[in-house]
Amino acid sequence: MQTIINKYSRIVFYALFVFTIGAGMLFTSCEKDDDKKSDEVELLSFGPMPIARGGELRFIGNNLDRVTAIVLPDNIVIEASQFTKRSATLLALTVPQNAVEGLVVLKTPKGDITTKTRIGYSEPISIETFLPGVIKPGNVLTITGDYLNLVGEVIFTDRVSVDSTNFISQSREEIKLLVPFEAQTGIIAVSDGKEDPIIIYSENELIVTVPMILSVSPNPVKAGTNLTITGENFDLATYIIMDALGDEKPIAKANFVSQSATEIVVKVPDDNKDGKVAVIAASFQGTITTAVLNMVVPTEVVVAPTTIKNGQSITVSGKDVDLVSSVIFGGGAEGEITSSSATQLVVTAPDNAVTGVVRLHTRAGKEVVAGNVTFVSPVITSFTPLELKPKNNLTITGQNLDLVDEVIFTGEMKGSIVSATETQLVVTVPVGAKTGTFTLVAKNGVQVVSGSEVTILSNLPDVTGFLQARAEPGKILTIQGTNLLLIKELVFPGNVYATAYGLKTDTQVEVYVPTSVPVGNGTIRLITYEGEEGVLPTIFFGSVDPIYNVNLVFFDFNGTGKDSWWGNAMGSGIETNPATSADGTPYWRINGMSGTGWWDGLFFRNGNNNYSAAGVNVATWAVRFDLNTFEAFPTDGNLKVRLGGGGDTHFYDFNLNNSMGFSNTNGWITVTLPLSGFKHESTGAPIPDAALGGSEFGMIWSSGVSVKVNIGIDNVRFEPIP
Fold it and tell me: What's the CA gap between 106 and 65, in Å, rounded?
């Protein structure tokens, strides 16, 4: 077994040197009075101070040979016959060991002379020995030395102390006390316990006994069963730590199954993992096993049946399978355990499970391969009719058709499932479906393609695309193709019917996009004069370009963390009015008078939250943002777009009243600022690719004159140049 490293750092004991004033220092006791008679006893000084007990105390003065006795505190009378020196100018005596601090009294025939200064003592507390040198917490430790009667506390490693009020006994030469259970092996110390204490340290370490592990059994052990740990001094144990070098699951002694000096029994936690075991005392010291305690896993595992349908159950048989916390099927789908015992599990396969290996996971974090399970797929044997129009039903016969979740027709059009049994599936052909094969998509994602084509009967125009890149509300969208004169009505997303058209020919139809169409990608449904319906290609509805990659947006003002802004000059701030927004979400609105200084800060960021320039390069990419000038500019206005900072800042000067026509956008538009146009603020050098990794960005208004600014900005991002 190996000893656990201290939980706390050992106290580092430093020697404390006490310096005292030289023995020659004396203290004045009384003042000389020239009017005194020459035969009067006069004390001028005494010392040294402080003085060690057993040392020589001297008194200097006049007529001191008349002193009959000296009284030291507390009422210790030293007769003249006991003086070690006696003359008219000098008296000396040996300070007894029981003397204490206080005033000294000189006895004379004409009365007492009391010193003005209190006598003090140099008391060298010392530790000579302590016994025993190896001790068990809770047993008696005897410390011997000198002046131990002055000790206010005994200090053990680690920061554990025993106050003198808790000593068993205390005298000048000896202290007896119980070793605290929290004490650790190390040097001990004694202190006088004062505010500025004198601390004396032992030369040798006191060895404090800790619990020692001898064995653990059984190993491997099953979670939820008892583990027996044998050893020594286990009556000191306060914790058992399972997986001591991993997750560390402490078990307090209150939760031990049983405890004696040589054995502890604990219940192994259900989620315990392989690892070493430690027995810990109140001192946080103890031992840890050298060998790893292994957790039992299920064995002799068999799965039946091995071919099933999603939603059906399998039975997992074996030994200790009650340890299983989850059953994972092919595709990473987790099954539902409906019953569990030590020898058998019943598990329902989820809809998204696919053919593959079944794995059993235990709460100990272990995995056991149970075997392969094959999931059946839908089978198409026939369908009828072979030809039909959209909105009519197609009947498919076969096997396992109750597993079908979707039916996809050619043209990526999804049909509506009317009914489904194991052998028959009825689906309504969607508008926009084209002649070709159809695909059955099972609940687990498996796709089955029909072996022959179904013919979709329709007399629809052939739409090849649109003249415009996007469908802007209130503006013309031009549909291109052939046989377009068959179109009677156009229905926009949100079931909004077109009410205004422009030019209509067999190859081109102009339609005004309704203003109430929802922003985003969508399709237009067409209705012919014969009542047939079709679907036009997907197009983006909105006045701004769709976002290329949402991960490259670093300002969207939607509370997504991509709006870590500061600065809001000219009354700017987040506007939450969907009616004036480009995409129905909040945007940055500037609506106020600009200053006349160098610049006004609109918004900035200097944090990395949700910022990315992955894959962006200066040569072919741009900073793009959506812009709306709610009011046209009568004078030049300049937006300075800032990238980088800290002495490496690059700007793009974007003029709102130049030949590009941005002084009046007539609604929301998308602005493209090529990264190659960003120049260093000092040198004018182009921005390097490396500078894009920084997260600093900002927009500044820098007209230099006071002007009304009423604009909106949204969705600032990196995108390839269109």
Answer: 11
Residue 161 CA to residue 178 CA, distance in Å, equals 11
pLDDT, tens only, 317-355? 999 999 999 999 999 999 999 999 999 999 999 999 999
The 10s digit of each residue's pLDDT in 203-247 is 899 999 999 999 999 999 999 999 999 999 999 999 999 887 777
pTM of the model: 0.54
Q: Does the structural domain 379-444 have CATH classification 3.10.490.10?
A: no
Q: Do residues 30 and 113 make contact, with C-beta atoms less than 8 angstroms apart?
A: yes
The bridge status of strand 387-388 relative to strand 455-456 is parallel
DSSP label at 537?
P
State phi, psi for 235 to the nearest 5 degrees. -65, -15
Q: Which CATH superfamily, name and number, covers 299-375?
A: Immunoglobulins (2.60.40.10)
DSSP state of 518: P
Class of domain 126-208: mainly beta
Instruction: At 610, give phi and psi (nearest 5°).
Output: 55, 30
Please, which residues have CB within 8 angstroms of residue 571's CB and are 6 or more apart in sequence? Answer: 590, 591, 592
282 half-sphere exposure, CB direction, 13 A CA radius: 11
Can you name the CATH fold of 212-288? Coagulation Factor XIII; Chain A, domain 1 (2.70.50)
- Superfamily of structural domain 462-541: Immunoglobulins (2.60.40.10)
Q: What is the pLDDT, as a whole number, of residue 185?
A: 94
Q: In what order do the strands lie in the sheet with 344-348?
A: 299-304, 313-319, 344-348, 336-340
Assigned CATH class of 550-720: mainly beta
Single-letter residue type at 516: S
Question: How far apart are the C-alpha atoms of 566 and 601, rounded to whole Å?
Answer: 9
CA distances for 698 relative to 554, 616, 687, 707, angstroms: 11, 18, 15, 20
Q: Are 153 and 164 in contact (CB under 8 A)?
A: yes
Comparing CA positions, the residue from 145, 152, 146 lying closest to residue 191 is 152
Nearest to 396 by CA among 380, 377, 414: 380
Residues forming beta bridges with residue 655, ordered by sequence position: 638
How far apart are alpha carbons 384 and 361 in whole angstroms?
A: 47
CATH superfamily of 27-122: Immunoglobulins (2.60.40.10)
Which tens digits make up the pLDDT trace of 583-592? 878 998 988 8
Using CA of residue 570, residue 574, residue 579, residue 585, what is the dihedral sign?
positive
What token pair was written down for 2?
């190996």
678 in Cβ contact with 696 (< 8 Å): no
DSSP state string for 79-130: EGGG-SEE-SSEEEEEPPTT--SB--EEEETTEEEE-SS-B-EE---EEEEE
Domain extents in the chain: 27-122, 126-208, 212-288, 299-375, 379-444, 462-541, 550-720
